[in-house]
Amino acid sequence: MKNLESIDWEPFLVSIKLSFITCVVLFLFCIFLAWFFAFKKFKFKNFLETLISLPLVLPPSVIGFYLLILFSKYSIVGEFLEKNFNISLAFTFEGLVIASCIYSLPFMFNPLYSAMLALPKNIIEASYSLGKSALETLFKVILPSIKPAIMSALVITFAHTMGEFGIVLMIGGSLSGETKVASIAIYESMENLDFTTAHIYSLILLIFSFVVLFCVNFFKKKKI
User: Fold this and answer.
1) Could you give the angle at which helices 182-191 and 195-221 cross, rounded to 10 degrees?
2) H-helix segments, 9-73
3) C-alpha pair distances (Å), 132 with each of 40, 55, 125
4) Spatial CB neighbours of 97, under 8 Å, sequence gap ≥ 6
5) Number of H helices, E strands in the chain
6) With contact defined as beta carbons under 8 Å apart, do 34 and 176 qualify?
7) What is the pTM of this model?
8) What is the pLDDT of residues 165-220, one digit of tens each?
9) Phi, psi of 9 (to 5 degrees)
10) Cα(187)–Cα(118) distance, rounded to whole angstroms?
11) Cα dihedral 128/130/136/141 (nearest 10)
């Protein structure tokens, strides 16, 4: 029986690193994106909202397939990046971050967007009437008013990225210490008939998922 000391914990470190970076990037991007969608009127808004939410229903392998083609050195984008900046995104951690941000975008965007839409309009109008700019209103009025939604968005996005499999396998493969995440480690353990390691990894992710859902329900019911 394999003990805990002999387990390779590196896939979890890669997963945590990927999840943290994805959360930071998406949060900084989505607070402005959600604000723009919530308080601005423009053409093709419904189309763009659908496009953002597409990863919720589209199989991750489909997104991973097209991103792999896009990142390939044989594509226009991949060739341009490699030739001019010596950047290769396929089967690299950087490519994995970009893919994770695309796939996890609706998990960060939707809670923030819904919370901003639910805010009373008089709060925003009062801020503007006091001479506050749009940015001041966003950071001093809107964001403090939707703290529970922010916490839920961060927790869900982090957990979703931790559990990614299909898109990670397509874009990152299984490079130890760089792109091999916990879900890939479980898959490989099963392939190698190493059920003890698979059990330990799966149990950790199971406990983590339960804690995440508990926290999300907590933030939904509690005003911070």
Assistant:
1) 150
2) 10-39, 45-53, 60-71
3) 17, 36, 10
4) 18, 21, 22, 25
5) 12, 0
6) no
7) 0.88
8) 888 888 888 888 888 998 998 998 888 888 888 888 899 888 888 887 887 777 66
9) -90, 0
10) 41
11) -80
